Amino acid sequence: NDWQESTKAVHNGERGGRPRISDSLTTPVVCTSTYTFKDTQELIDYQEGNYGSFEYGRYGNPTTRAAEEKIRLLEGGEDCLLSASGMCTAVTMLLSLVPAGGHIVTTTDCYRRTRQFIQTFLPKMGITSTVLDPSDYDGLQKALDEHDCSLYFSESPTNPYLRCVDIDRIAKMCNPKGCLVCIDGTFATPCNLKALNFGADLVIHSASKYMGGHNDVLGGVIVGQKEAVSKVRAFHNIVGGVLDPHAAYLILRGLKTLSLRVERHNSNAQKLAEWLEAHPKISKVHYPGLKSHPDYEVANKYMTGFGGVVSFEVDGDLWRTAKFIDECNLPYIAPSLGGVESLIEQPTVVSYWDQGPEKRAAIGIKDNLVRFACGIEDYADIEADFKQALDKI
Predict the structure, then answer these.
(1) Quick one: 6 exposed, middle or buried, by C-beta within 10 A (0-12, 13-18, 19+)?
(2) Mean pLDDT calculated for residue range 123-133
(3) Angle at 106 between CA 133 and CA 122, to 5 degrees
(4) Alpha helix locations (H) across 295-340?
(5) Which of 157, 292, 373, 382 is deepest in the core (most CB within 10 A)?
(6) Residue 112 — very low, low, confident or very high, per pLDDT cuts 50/70/90?
(7) 391 phi and psi, to 5 degrees?
(8) Hey, CA dihedral for 204, 210, 211, 217, is it positive or negative?
């Protein structure tokens, strides 16, 4: 063509026909902020629903769409939406599905930032909440009878005490009242729990955890009932919170080995929980795969494995607990979970240090509590490291 040099640099090699990518084994990372139309008629066809396009990067991406479809099928949902983080997903879901002046029911044991949003920010829109123990079904019925509840929202298992909720029972209570049920299944993964099969309307995950699986990506996902996910997507398209396509690719790749990794996470955590429960320097172990756990029967009803997180209480105070953590050599001291590396944390220090002893006690966070996120290392190495660390306190 007769274009000049700068124009050629911008357009040549792409404008006249791009390389075929349909035979690429891996899903390409599509880095684009916008999508083109060949002519005005094609654009009109799109506007009238007769031509498929994302139109703009905030509304969708082919790489992200592939990851969404994989998660949708893993969970057995009707629709799926990825966003920039787990909290982005949770906040967008709450703002989309709960009207101003509405009421939600949630549980006491949960991720701190979720609780903070529900109790601090939602009241600015007149949204109130009932906060219940995960097993308080009488309290749930009372809330449903006394309020026009839009949403029941709980983790299962919860963070950090790994409480599990009776999903079928909750759904049967909420459905007649028009109250949606959303379960945060991050700690479970779809390999261990398919909450939609038991009556939940929606499931959310922090995809940063087991789905990504390598502690190298942030992402969140909601999957489930099409009408509800569509409402969340409509709001998401306005406020943003878009997942970068590179992040979508990392999640897509992580999902390929999810079941293999979760099998090892489950095995390591179950063995460790049983070993810790028998150790004289451990006063209590919180793991739904143990018969001593208050929700053991509920967990067995819904879960095929109990996840890779074990919480436990050291027989001692804050500083004896901290010494145990500092003596461990294998895990990294860090928040998060679900990656190939084992991570250890003292919730008092990592998440609640600014709260003070009285506030921590009020929400059940004990100074001697440890949360251990099992990686996929050989179990014998994890146990040996814990043994030597406990021997030193």
Answers:
(1) exposed
(2) 96
(3) 140
(4) 296-302, 318-327
(5) 157
(6) confident
(7) -65, -20
(8) positive
- The answer to whether the beta carbons of residues 100 and 248 sit under 8 Å apart is no
pLDDT for 361 equals 85
Return d(Cα 134, Cα 381) in angstroms, integer: 34
Cβ neighbours around 239 below 10 Å, total: 14
Angle at 126 between CA 121 and CA 131, to 5 degrees: 70
Element (H, E) at 93: helix 86-97
Note whether 83 and 92 are within 8 A (CB): yes
Q: How far apart (Å, rounded) are the C-alpha atoms in residues 156 and 153?
A: 10
* pTM of the model as a whole: 0.95
How far apart CA 228 and CA 47 sit, in angstroms, is 23
Alpha helices in 105-218 (DSSP H): 112-116, 137-146, 167-174, 189-192
Under 8 Å between Cβ of 195 and 167: yes
Structure-token pair, residue 365: 């966070």
| Stated length of the chain | 393
